[in-house]
Write a structure and sequence with these properties.
Blueprint: H1 18-31
Length: 61
Amino acid sequence: MYLLGHGLIGSFSAYKSGHHLNNMLLMELLNNQDAWEEVTIEDTSKSPIFYASPEPIVTEN
């Protein structure tokens, strides 16, 4: 769902949905803008979601 370019607050559950079905869902969301809203959270300490910070992976040859 991150392909929309934004995080998603909500839930999405599918079993082996694949690229085609995921794309169909994204297109439906984009075409039906009454079904969702974009929000801005000023105080991130109250954010209902959390994104982990990526950590670099160091390998030795």
